[in-house]
Design brief:
Radius of gyration: 25 Å
CATH superfamily of the largest domain: His-Me finger endonucleases
Number of domains: 2
Strand order of the largest sheet: 1-2
């Protein structure tokens, strides 16, 4: 027999009972949870049945995944969300194909470079072969952006130079 919940207090009582039944752990992740960092998770279908007590971040993430499923996958993908997630896990666990590096690496290097102080940035520019003298941060960033596009440098060289500049 299913008990229908009517008030937030009803939900709180069920959540506390679930936390106890789940031995104080998030049913999704197994991470310890307390009443204050937990949510009463439920299916977002026509029945709205409670599934368990989850850490609030697990609950938010699961909600996002289910929303993304409805918005981007459910209309063309022939299977359900759990099948997609299993396939996604298998895909993510595959060995990396090291033949190509996506151009997103340049943005990552810019972010890493931007985290340096002015002295470190100047050292990176010099160590990468820049001969232009840069008197301000805007000029340094502009020169670094040019260096990023030099194919003879590449990700490994640029990353190594940036990391070495942080050491001293």
């Amino acid at each position: 027999m299913t008990i229908d919940l009517y008030t937030p207090n009803d939900v709180k009582k069920v959540r506390l009972q679930l936390i106890e039944e789940q031995e104080g752990k998030c049913l999704l992740t197994g991470v310890p949870i307390t009443a204050s960092d937990s949510h009463c998770d439920h299916a977002h279908d026509s029945e709205q049945l409670v599934r368990g007590a989850l850490h609030r971040h697990s609950n938010l993430t699961l909600g996002k995944l289910e929303g993304l499923w409805l918005r981007y996958l459910s209309f063309w993908y022939p299977h359900d969300l759990p099948t997609f997630l299993r396939q996604a896990a298998e895909y993510l666990e595959r060995p990396k194909d090291k033949r190509w590096r996506h151009l997103g690496w340049m943005r990552k290097m810019q972010t890493l470079y931007n985290s340096l102080n002015a002295t470190q940035k100047t050292k990176v520019l010099r160590d990468l072969g820049c001969t232009v003298s840069c008197s301000n941060d805007t000029a340094r960033k502009k020169e670094f952006a040019k260096l990023l596009k030099q194919r003879d440098l590449g990700y490994n060289k640029i990353k190594s130079v940036i990391l070495n500049s942080k050491k001293g």
